[in-house]
Protein backbone atom coordinates (compact mmCIF):
# COMPACT_ATOMS: atom_id res chain seq x y z
CA UNK A 1 0.00 0.00 0.00
CA UNK A 2 2.79 2.41 0.89
CA UNK A 3 4.52 2.93 -2.46
CA UNK A 4 6.55 6.06 -1.83
CA UNK A 5 8.47 7.53 1.09
CA UNK A 6 6.74 10.43 2.84
CA UNK A 7 3.55 9.88 0.88
CA UNK A 8 0.09 9.61 2.41
CA UNK A 9 -2.77 7.85 0.66
CA UNK A 10 -6.22 9.29 1.22
CA UNK A 11 -8.85 6.84 -0.01
CA UNK A 12 -12.38 8.17 -0.27
CA UNK A 13 -15.22 5.77 -1.02
CA UNK A 14 -18.63 7.10 -1.96
CA UNK A 15 -21.50 4.63 -1.96
CA UNK A 16 -25.29 4.51 -2.06
CA UNK A 17 -26.97 6.90 -4.43
CA UNK A 18 -29.86 9.24 -3.66
CA UNK A 19 -32.36 11.52 -5.34
CA UNK A 20 -33.20 9.83 -8.69
CA UNK A 21 -33.73 12.26 -11.52
CA UNK A 22 -37.52 12.12 -11.38
CA UNK A 23 -37.59 12.75 -7.63
CA UNK A 24 -35.92 16.15 -7.55
CA UNK A 25 -36.72 19.65 -8.60
CA UNK A 26 -33.57 21.04 -10.10
CA UNK A 27 -32.15 23.47 -12.62
CA UNK A 28 -29.13 22.74 -14.83
CA UNK A 29 -26.78 25.61 -15.60
CA UNK A 30 -23.30 25.49 -17.12
CA UNK A 31 -20.47 26.04 -14.64
CA UNK A 32 -16.69 26.45 -14.95
CA UNK A 33 -13.95 24.36 -13.35
CA UNK A 34 -10.50 25.95 -13.17
CA UNK A 35 -7.27 24.33 -12.02
CA UNK A 36 -4.30 26.60 -11.39
CA UNK A 37 -6.04 29.37 -13.33
CA UNK A 38 -6.71 27.29 -16.45
CA UNK A 39 -10.22 26.28 -17.51
CA UNK A 40 -10.45 22.50 -17.18
CA UNK A 41 -14.10 22.01 -18.12
CA UNK A 42 -17.51 23.66 -18.37
CA UNK A 43 -19.92 21.06 -16.97
CA UNK A 44 -23.58 21.50 -16.23
CA UNK A 45 -24.30 21.85 -12.54
CA UNK A 46 -27.55 20.89 -10.87
CA UNK A 47 -28.79 23.32 -8.22
CA UNK A 48 -31.04 21.41 -5.85
CA UNK A 49 -31.52 20.54 -2.19
CA UNK A 50 -29.04 18.22 -0.54
CA UNK A 51 -31.67 17.39 2.05
CA UNK A 52 -31.28 20.55 4.08
CA UNK A 53 -30.28 23.40 1.79
CA UNK A 54 -29.85 24.35 -1.86
CA UNK A 55 -26.41 23.53 -3.26
CA UNK A 56 -24.70 22.71 -6.57
CA UNK A 57 -24.00 19.18 -7.75
CA UNK A 58 -21.73 18.31 -10.71
CA UNK A 59 -21.38 15.07 -12.71
CA UNK A 60 -18.99 12.74 -10.95
CA UNK A 61 -16.80 12.43 -14.05
CA UNK A 62 -15.98 16.15 -14.07
CA UNK A 63 -15.37 16.10 -10.32
CA UNK A 64 -13.01 13.20 -10.86
CA UNK A 65 -11.10 15.02 -13.60
CA UNK A 66 -10.70 18.02 -11.29
CA UNK A 67 -9.34 15.71 -8.61
CA UNK A 68 -6.91 14.14 -11.06
CA UNK A 69 -5.68 17.57 -12.10
CA UNK A 70 -5.06 18.29 -8.43
CA UNK A 71 -3.03 15.10 -7.99
CA UNK A 72 -5.65 12.47 -7.12
CA UNK A 73 -6.08 9.08 -8.73
CA UNK A 74 -9.74 8.10 -8.86
CA UNK A 75 -11.96 5.30 -10.02
CA UNK A 76 -15.64 4.41 -9.80
CA UNK A 77 -16.86 0.84 -9.43
CA UNK A 78 -20.59 1.57 -9.49
CA UNK A 79 -20.91 1.41 -5.71
CA UNK A 80 -17.86 3.32 -4.48
CA UNK A 81 -15.99 6.27 -5.95
CA UNK A 82 -12.39 5.97 -4.79
CA UNK A 83 -10.04 8.96 -4.83
CA UNK A 84 -6.40 8.79 -3.84
CA UNK A 85 -4.33 11.86 -2.99
CA UNK A 86 -0.56 11.64 -2.71
CA UNK A 87 0.89 14.32 -0.45
CA UNK A 88 3.86 14.84 1.85
CA UNK A 89 1.62 15.62 4.84
CA UNK A 90 -1.55 14.10 6.24
CA UNK A 91 -4.78 16.02 5.92
CA UNK A 92 -6.76 16.95 9.03
CA UNK A 93 -10.34 15.87 8.43
CA UNK A 94 -11.40 15.97 12.09
CA UNK A 95 -13.07 19.38 11.75
CA UNK A 96 -15.47 18.17 9.04
CA UNK A 97 -18.84 17.24 10.59
CA UNK A 98 -20.00 13.80 9.49
CA UNK A 99 -23.60 14.95 9.02
CA UNK A 100 -26.21 12.78 7.36
CA UNK A 101 -26.91 11.49 3.88
CA UNK A 102 -27.25 8.36 1.81
CA UNK A 103 -23.65 8.36 0.57
CA UNK A 104 -20.58 7.90 2.73
CA UNK A 105 -17.15 9.43 2.27
CA UNK A 106 -14.56 7.26 3.98
CA UNK A 107 -10.92 8.32 4.33
CA UNK A 108 -8.40 5.62 5.22
CA UNK A 109 -11.15 3.43 6.60
CA UNK A 110 -12.71 6.21 8.68
CA UNK A 111 -16.08 7.75 7.96
CA UNK A 112 -15.52 11.47 7.41
CA UNK A 113 -18.65 12.71 5.70
CA UNK A 114 -22.11 11.62 4.66
CA UNK A 115 -23.67 13.34 1.66
CA UNK A 116 -26.60 12.98 -0.67
CA UNK A 117 -26.01 12.58 -4.40
CA UNK A 118 -28.13 13.17 -7.49
CA UNK A 119 -28.69 10.79 -10.40
CA UNK A 120 -29.76 12.34 -13.70
CA UNK A 121 -28.69 12.75 -17.30
CA UNK A 122 -25.87 15.12 -18.16
CA UNK A 123 -27.05 17.65 -20.80
CA UNK A 124 -23.51 17.80 -22.20
CA UNK A 125 -23.71 14.14 -23.25
CA UNK A 126 -26.37 14.86 -25.88
CA UNK A 127 -29.43 12.91 -26.96
CA UNK A 128 -27.96 9.53 -26.03
CA UNK A 129 -27.04 10.59 -22.49
CA UNK A 130 -27.30 7.97 -19.77
CA UNK A 131 -28.12 8.73 -16.12
CA UNK A 132 -24.98 9.61 -14.17
CA UNK A 133 -24.11 10.47 -10.59
CA UNK A 134 -23.76 14.09 -9.47
CA UNK A 135 -21.66 15.00 -6.42
CA UNK A 136 -22.20 18.05 -4.12
CA UNK A 137 -19.33 20.47 -4.72
CA UNK A 138 -19.55 22.14 -1.32
CA UNK A 139 -18.55 19.00 0.59
CA UNK A 140 -15.86 17.99 -1.88
CA UNK A 141 -14.45 21.47 -1.43
CA UNK A 142 -14.28 20.87 2.33
CA UNK A 143 -12.26 17.72 1.78
CA UNK A 144 -9.90 19.53 -0.60
CA UNK A 145 -9.31 22.23 1.99
CA UNK A 146 -8.68 19.69 4.74
CA UNK A 147 -6.15 17.98 2.47
CA UNK A 148 -4.28 21.27 2.07
CA UNK A 149 -5.49 22.10 -1.44
CA UNK A 150 -6.67 25.66 -2.01
CA UNK A 151 -10.15 25.79 -3.50
CA UNK A 152 -13.02 28.23 -3.84
CA UNK A 153 -16.56 28.06 -5.18
CA UNK A 154 -18.64 31.16 -5.96
CA UNK A 155 -21.67 29.41 -7.40
CA UNK A 156 -20.43 29.77 -10.96
CA UNK A 157 -16.72 28.91 -10.97
CA UNK A 158 -14.93 26.21 -8.99
CA UNK A 159 -11.26 27.20 -8.67
CA UNK A 160 -8.63 24.74 -7.47
CA UNK A 161 -4.99 25.62 -6.84
CA UNK A 162 -2.49 22.83 -6.36
CA UNK A 163 1.18 22.17 -6.84
CA UNK A 164 2.46 20.69 -10.10
CA UNK A 165 1.85 16.96 -10.43
CA UNK A 166 4.53 14.59 -11.63
CA UNK A 167 4.17 12.96 -15.06
CA UNK A 168 2.45 9.63 -15.55
CA UNK A 169 4.37 6.43 -16.23
CA UNK A 170 1.90 4.02 -17.83
CA UNK A 171 2.58 0.36 -18.56
CA UNK A 172 0.84 -2.47 -20.40
CA UNK A 173 0.51 -5.65 -18.36
CA UNK A 174 -0.07 -9.04 -19.98
CA UNK A 175 -1.57 -12.26 -18.66
CA UNK A 176 -0.55 -14.59 -21.49
CA UNK A 177 -1.30 -18.21 -20.63
CA UNK A 178 -2.33 -17.15 -17.14
CA UNK A 179 1.19 -15.94 -16.35
CA UNK A 180 1.49 -13.27 -13.65
CA UNK A 181 5.12 -12.43 -14.51
CA UNK A 182 4.20 -9.07 -16.04
CA UNK A 183 2.16 -8.09 -12.97
CA UNK A 184 4.99 -9.19 -10.69
CA UNK A 185 7.34 -6.93 -12.66
CA UNK A 186 4.87 -4.06 -12.28
CA UNK A 187 4.71 -4.60 -8.52
CA UNK A 188 8.50 -4.42 -8.36
CA UNK A 189 8.53 -1.01 -10.07
CA UNK A 190 6.16 1.33 -8.20
CA UNK A 191 6.97 4.31 -10.42
CA UNK A 192 4.28 2.97 -12.78
CA UNK A 193 1.16 4.90 -11.75
CA UNK A 194 -1.27 3.73 -14.45
CA UNK A 195 -1.51 0.49 -16.39
CA UNK A 196 -3.75 -1.52 -18.67
CA UNK A 197 -4.27 -5.26 -18.79
CA UNK A 198 -3.92 -6.56 -22.34
CA UNK A 199 -6.66 -9.17 -22.10
CA UNK A 200 -9.67 -8.63 -24.39
CA UNK A 201 -10.56 -8.54 -28.08
CA UNK A 202 -13.72 -8.04 -30.12
CA UNK A 203 -15.83 -10.66 -31.88
CA UNK A 204 -17.77 -10.41 -35.14
CA UNK A 205 -21.09 -9.99 -33.32
CA UNK A 206 -19.91 -7.06 -31.22
CA UNK A 207 -19.06 -9.27 -28.29
CA UNK A 208 -15.85 -9.50 -26.29
CA UNK A 209 -13.58 -12.43 -25.60
CA UNK A 210 -11.05 -12.58 -22.82
CA UNK A 211 -10.88 -12.85 -19.05
CA UNK A 212 -10.54 -9.99 -16.60
CA UNK A 213 -7.15 -10.00 -14.88
CA UNK A 214 -8.79 -9.63 -11.47
CA UNK A 215 -5.51 -9.90 -9.57
CA UNK A 216 -4.26 -6.81 -11.39
CA UNK A 217 -7.48 -4.95 -10.64
CA UNK A 218 -7.17 -5.75 -6.96
CA UNK A 219 -3.56 -4.60 -6.94
CA UNK A 220 -4.57 -1.30 -8.54
CA UNK A 221 -7.34 -0.76 -6.01
CA UNK A 222 -5.09 -1.51 -3.04
CA UNK A 223 -2.36 0.83 -4.26
CA UNK A 224 -4.39 3.73 -5.61
CA UNK A 225 -3.53 3.15 -9.28
CA UNK A 226 -5.66 3.71 -12.36
CA UNK A 227 -5.98 0.36 -14.16
CA UNK A 228 -7.66 -0.08 -17.54
CA UNK A 229 -8.71 -3.11 -19.56
CA UNK A 230 -7.38 -3.08 -23.12
CA UNK A 231 -9.78 -4.16 -25.87
CA UNK A 232 -8.18 -4.86 -29.25
CA UNK A 233 -9.39 -5.77 -32.73
CA UNK A 234 -7.11 -8.80 -32.89
CA UNK A 235 -8.55 -11.68 -34.88
CA UNK A 236 -8.60 -14.80 -32.71
CA UNK A 237 -8.06 -17.01 -35.78
CA UNK A 238 -5.11 -15.21 -37.36
CA UNK A 239 -3.69 -13.56 -34.25
CA UNK A 240 -3.32 -10.30 -36.19
CA UNK A 241 -5.01 -6.93 -35.86
CA UNK A 242 -8.04 -7.01 -38.15
CA UNK A 243 -9.15 -3.64 -39.51
CA UNK A 244 -11.85 -5.24 -41.65
CA UNK A 245 -13.43 -6.93 -38.63
CA UNK A 246 -13.56 -3.66 -36.70
CA UNK A 247 -15.01 -1.76 -39.66
CA UNK A 248 -17.75 -4.35 -40.18
CA UNK A 249 -18.83 -4.02 -36.55
CA UNK A 250 -18.69 -0.22 -36.47
CA UNK A 251 -20.75 0.06 -39.67
CA UNK A 252 -23.54 -2.15 -38.29
CA UNK A 253 -25.71 -0.20 -35.82
CA UNK A 254 -26.79 -3.27 -33.84
CA UNK A 255 -23.30 -4.74 -33.50
CA UNK A 256 -21.82 -1.32 -32.76
CA UNK A 257 -24.24 -0.73 -29.89
CA UNK A 258 -23.65 -4.24 -28.57
CA UNK A 259 -19.89 -3.63 -28.56
CA UNK A 260 -20.30 -0.32 -26.77
CA UNK A 261 -22.60 -1.85 -24.13
CA UNK A 262 -20.26 -4.80 -23.62
CA UNK A 263 -17.29 -2.51 -23.03
CA UNK A 264 -19.15 -0.49 -20.40
CA UNK A 265 -20.34 -3.70 -18.71
CA UNK A 266 -16.79 -5.06 -18.71
CA UNK A 267 -15.59 -2.39 -16.26
CA UNK A 268 -18.81 -1.43 -14.48
CA UNK A 269 -18.84 -2.67 -10.89
CA UNK A 270 -15.09 -3.43 -10.95
CA UNK A 271 -11.98 -1.66 -9.60
CA UNK A 272 -10.87 -0.92 -13.16
CA UNK A 273 -10.81 2.78 -14.07
CA UNK A 274 -12.02 2.27 -17.62
CA UNK A 275 -11.34 0.92 -21.10
CA UNK A 276 -8.21 1.23 -23.22
CA UNK A 277 -8.96 0.88 -26.95
CA UNK A 278 -6.27 -0.57 -29.21
CA UNK A 279 -7.82 -0.87 -32.68
CA UNK A 280 -4.98 -1.13 -35.18
CA UNK A 281 -4.72 -1.45 -38.97
CA UNK A 282 -8.00 0.40 -39.57
CA UNK A 283 -8.54 1.46 -43.21
CA UNK A 284 -8.67 5.20 -43.87
CA UNK A 285 -12.26 4.78 -45.02
CA UNK A 286 -13.31 3.97 -41.44
CA UNK A 287 -12.07 7.33 -40.08
CA UNK A 288 -15.53 8.78 -39.37
CA UNK A 289 -16.89 5.45 -38.07
CA UNK A 290 -14.07 5.11 -35.56
CA UNK A 291 -14.26 8.76 -34.46
CA UNK A 292 -18.00 8.53 -33.88
CA UNK A 293 -17.64 5.30 -31.92
CA UNK A 294 -14.93 6.74 -29.69
CA UNK A 295 -17.11 9.77 -28.93
CA UNK A 296 -20.13 7.64 -28.03
CA UNK A 297 -18.06 5.17 -26.01
CA UNK A 298 -16.48 8.01 -24.04
CA UNK A 299 -19.91 9.45 -23.22
CA UNK A 300 -21.20 6.05 -22.07
CA UNK A 301 -18.14 5.35 -19.93
CA UNK A 302 -18.20 8.82 -18.41
CA UNK A 303 -21.87 8.39 -17.50
CA UNK A 304 -20.83 5.21 -15.67
CA UNK A 305 -18.03 7.05 -13.87
CA UNK A 306 -15.36 5.34 -15.97
CA UNK A 307 -12.67 6.65 -18.30
CA UNK A 308 -11.50 6.05 -21.85
CA UNK A 309 -7.90 5.66 -22.97
CA UNK A 310 -7.15 5.25 -26.69
CA UNK A 311 -4.02 3.95 -28.42
CA UNK A 312 -3.25 5.46 -31.82
CA UNK A 313 -0.50 4.76 -34.37
CA UNK A 314 2.19 7.39 -34.79
CA UNK A 315 1.41 9.72 -37.70
CA UNK A 316 2.66 13.11 -38.86
CA UNK A 317 -0.44 14.26 -40.78
CA UNK A 318 -4.20 13.79 -40.98
CA UNK A 319 -4.26 11.18 -43.76
CA UNK A 320 -5.11 8.13 -41.64
CA UNK A 321 -8.10 6.42 -40.03
CA UNK A 322 -7.28 8.07 -36.72
CA UNK A 323 -8.68 11.57 -36.27
CA UNK A 324 -6.34 12.77 -33.54
CA UNK A 325 -8.38 15.89 -32.77
CA UNK A 326 -11.70 14.07 -32.32
CA UNK A 327 -10.13 11.22 -30.37
CA UNK A 328 -8.28 13.70 -28.16
CA UNK A 329 -11.44 15.66 -27.42
CA UNK A 330 -13.52 12.61 -26.48
CA UNK A 331 -11.03 10.49 -24.56
CA UNK A 332 -9.29 11.03 -21.24
CA UNK A 333 -5.84 10.13 -22.51
CA UNK A 334 -4.27 9.12 -25.81
CA UNK A 335 -1.26 6.83 -26.10
CA UNK A 336 0.73 7.49 -29.28
CA UNK A 337 2.54 4.33 -30.37
CA UNK A 338 5.74 6.05 -31.44
CA UNK A 339 7.63 2.86 -32.19
CA UNK A 340 8.10 0.20 -34.87
CA UNK A 341 9.41 2.76 -37.35
CA UNK A 342 11.45 -0.25 -38.47
CA UNK A 343 9.22 -3.27 -38.13
CA UNK A 344 9.18 -7.08 -38.38
CA UNK A 345 9.38 -8.13 -42.01
CA UNK A 346 10.89 -4.83 -43.12
CA UNK A 347 14.51 -3.72 -43.41
CA UNK A 348 16.64 -3.56 -40.27
CA UNK A 349 16.76 -0.17 -38.59
CA UNK A 350 15.96 1.92 -35.55
CA UNK A 351 12.71 1.07 -33.77
CA UNK A 352 11.99 4.60 -32.57
CA UNK A 353 14.47 7.08 -34.10
CA UNK A 354 14.34 10.24 -32.04
CA UNK A 355 13.97 12.57 -35.04
CA UNK A 356 10.89 10.72 -36.23
CA UNK A 357 9.43 10.64 -32.71
CA UNK A 358 9.93 14.40 -32.52
CA UNK A 359 8.03 14.87 -35.80
CA UNK A 360 5.19 12.69 -34.51
CA UNK A 361 4.95 14.69 -31.28
CA UNK A 362 5.09 18.00 -33.15
CA UNK A 363 1.97 16.97 -35.08
CA UNK A 364 0.27 15.30 -32.12
CA UNK A 365 0.43 18.34 -29.86
CA UNK A 366 -1.28 20.49 -32.50
CA UNK A 367 -4.25 18.10 -32.44
CA UNK A 368 -4.46 16.81 -28.86
CA UNK A 369 -3.89 18.77 -25.61
CA UNK A 370 -0.43 17.73 -24.36
CA UNK A 371 -1.83 16.99 -20.90
CA UNK A 372 -3.79 14.11 -22.46
CA UNK A 373 -0.89 12.63 -24.45
CA UNK A 374 1.20 9.62 -23.44
CA UNK A 375 4.32 9.04 -25.53
CA UNK A 376 4.59 5.32 -26.25
CA UNK A 377 8.06 3.93 -25.56
CA UNK A 378 9.36 0.54 -26.77
CA UNK A 379 11.35 -1.46 -24.25
CA UNK A 380 12.43 -4.28 -26.54
CA UNK A 381 14.62 -5.07 -29.54
CA UNK A 382 14.38 -6.68 -32.98
CA UNK A 383 16.80 -9.16 -34.54
CA UNK A 384 16.75 -9.16 -38.37
CA UNK A 385 18.34 -12.03 -40.35
CA UNK A 386 17.59 -13.76 -43.68
CA UNK A 387 14.31 -11.92 -44.14
CA UNK A 388 13.05 -12.97 -40.72
CA UNK A 389 12.58 -10.78 -37.64
CA UNK A 390 12.64 -11.94 -34.03
CA UNK A 391 11.40 -9.79 -31.14
CA UNK A 392 13.72 -9.73 -28.15
CA UNK A 393 13.34 -8.66 -24.55
CA UNK A 394 16.10 -6.34 -23.38
CA UNK A 395 17.34 -9.14 -21.12
CA UNK A 396 17.69 -11.36 -24.20
CA UNK A 397 19.56 -8.55 -25.97
CA UNK A 398 21.98 -8.30 -23.07
CA UNK A 399 22.50 -12.06 -23.15
CA UNK A 400 23.34 -11.96 -26.88
CA UNK A 401 25.86 -9.19 -26.25
CA UNK A 402 27.51 -11.14 -23.44
CA UNK A 403 27.58 -14.54 -25.15
CA UNK A 404 28.98 -13.16 -28.41
CA UNK A 405 31.41 -10.71 -26.78
CA UNK A 406 29.80 -7.84 -28.72
CA UNK A 407 30.54 -4.15 -28.37
CA UNK A 408 27.31 -2.38 -29.38
CA UNK A 409 27.45 0.66 -31.65
CA UNK A 410 25.47 3.89 -31.42
CA UNK A 411 23.37 5.20 -34.30
CA UNK A 412 23.95 8.91 -33.72
CA UNK A 413 21.19 9.99 -36.10
CA UNK A 414 18.50 7.73 -34.64
CA UNK A 415 19.96 7.96 -31.11
CA UNK A 416 19.57 4.22 -30.68
CA UNK A 417 22.02 1.34 -30.07
CA UNK A 418 22.57 -1.56 -32.46
CA UNK A 419 24.99 -4.36 -33.26
CA UNK A 420 25.56 -7.19 -35.70
CA UNK A 421 26.67 -10.77 -35.17
CA UNK A 422 26.90 -14.00 -37.15
CA UNK A 423 25.13 -17.23 -36.26
CA UNK A 424 24.73 -20.39 -38.38
CA UNK A 425 26.28 -18.56 -41.32
CA UNK A 426 23.71 -15.73 -41.22
CA UNK A 427 24.41 -12.08 -40.39
CA UNK A 428 22.05 -10.69 -37.76
CA UNK A 429 21.34 -7.00 -37.16
CA UNK A 430 19.85 -6.01 -33.81
CA UNK A 431 18.37 -2.63 -32.91
CA UNK A 432 17.05 -2.10 -29.41
CA UNK A 433 16.42 0.43 -26.65
CA UNK A 434 18.64 1.10 -23.67
CA UNK A 435 18.78 3.60 -20.82
CA UNK A 436 20.32 6.31 -23.02
CA UNK A 437 17.86 5.99 -25.91
CA UNK A 438 14.93 5.97 -23.47
CA UNK A 439 16.30 9.04 -21.71
CA UNK A 440 16.59 10.88 -25.05
CA UNK A 441 12.91 10.26 -25.76
CA UNK A 442 11.93 11.23 -22.22
CA UNK A 443 13.48 14.62 -22.94
CA UNK A 444 10.98 15.05 -25.77
CA UNK A 445 8.11 14.24 -23.40
CA UNK A 446 9.42 16.87 -20.99
CA UNK A 447 9.85 19.49 -23.70
CA UNK A 448 6.28 19.03 -24.89
CA UNK A 449 4.85 18.95 -21.34
CA UNK A 450 3.10 15.68 -22.06
CA UNK A 451 0.87 13.88 -19.59
CA UNK A 452 3.46 11.14 -19.49
CA UNK A 453 4.86 8.08 -21.21
CA UNK A 454 3.61 4.53 -21.78
CA UNK A 455 5.76 1.39 -21.91
CA UNK A 456 5.13 -1.51 -24.26
CA UNK A 457 5.27 -3.62 -22.33
CA UNK A 458 5.98 -4.43 -18.66
CA UNK A 459 8.25 -7.47 -18.56
CA UNK A 460 10.25 -6.76 -21.73
CA UNK A 461 12.53 -4.15 -20.15
CA UNK A 462 15.76 -4.62 -18.20
CA UNK A 463 16.76 -3.01 -14.91
CA UNK A 464 18.80 -0.25 -16.57
CA UNK A 465 15.87 1.55 -18.25
CA UNK A 466 14.18 2.14 -14.90
CA UNK A 467 16.82 4.69 -13.84
CA UNK A 468 15.88 7.41 -16.39
CA UNK A 469 12.20 6.54 -15.93
CA UNK A 470 12.53 7.09 -12.19
CA UNK A 471 14.08 10.51 -12.74
CA UNK A 472 11.31 11.39 -15.17
CA UNK A 473 8.59 10.22 -12.77
CA UNK A 474 10.13 12.34 -10.02
CA UNK A 475 9.84 15.40 -12.24
CA UNK A 476 13.60 15.68 -12.84
Please provide a written account of the structure.
This protein is α/β, with parallel strands linked by helices. It folds into two domains: 8-161, no CATH class; 168-379 and 436-473, Glycosidases (TIM Barrel, Alpha-Beta Barrel), CATH 3.20.20.80. 27% of the residues lie in helices and 33% in strands. It has twelve helices and 28 strands. The protein has helices spanning 60-69, 137-146, 181-187, 214-223, 243-250, 253-267, 287-303, 324-330, 354-367, 394-403, 435-447, 466-473; strands spanning 8-15, 27-30, 32-35, 38-41, 44-49, 54-59, 72-76, 81-87, 103-107, 110-115, 118-121, 131-136, 150-153, 157-161, 168-174, 194-202, 208-209, 226-232, 274-278, 307-313, 333-337, 373-378, 380-385, 388-393, 409-411, 416-423, 426-432, 452-456. The protein has an eight-stranded parallel β-barrel, surrounded by seven helices. It has a five-stranded antiparallel beta sheet with strand order 7-8-1-9-10. β3 (32-35) and β4 (38-41) form a beta hairpin. α9 runs parallel beside α11 and α11 (435-447) packs parallel to α12. It is globular. The protein starts with 7 loop residues before the first strand and ends with a helix. Residues 1-25 and 82-89 have low confidence and may be disordered. This is Glycosyl hydrolase family 18 protein. Keywords: Hydrolase. InterPro entries: Chitinase_II/V-like_cat, Chitinase_insertion_sf, GH, Glyco_hydro18_cat. It comes from Alicyclobacillus acidoterrestris (strain ATCC 49025 / DSM 3922 / CIP 106132 / NCIMB 13137 / GD3B). GO terms for molecular function: chitin binding; hydrolase activity.
Amino acid sequence: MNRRAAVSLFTLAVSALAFPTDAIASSSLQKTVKVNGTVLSRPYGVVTSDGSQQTTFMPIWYVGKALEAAGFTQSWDGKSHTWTLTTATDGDFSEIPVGSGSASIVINGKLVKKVNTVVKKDPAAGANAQPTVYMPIYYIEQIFQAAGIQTSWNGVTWSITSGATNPVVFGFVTNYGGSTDSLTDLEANPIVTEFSTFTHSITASGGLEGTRFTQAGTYAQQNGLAAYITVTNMNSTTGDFDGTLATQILSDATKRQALLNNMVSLVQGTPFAGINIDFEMLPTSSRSLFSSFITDLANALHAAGKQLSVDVPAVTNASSAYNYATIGTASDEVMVMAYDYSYPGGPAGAIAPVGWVQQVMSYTTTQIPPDKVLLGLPVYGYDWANGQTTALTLTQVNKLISENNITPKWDSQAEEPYFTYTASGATHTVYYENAQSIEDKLQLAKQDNLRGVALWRIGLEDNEVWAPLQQYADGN
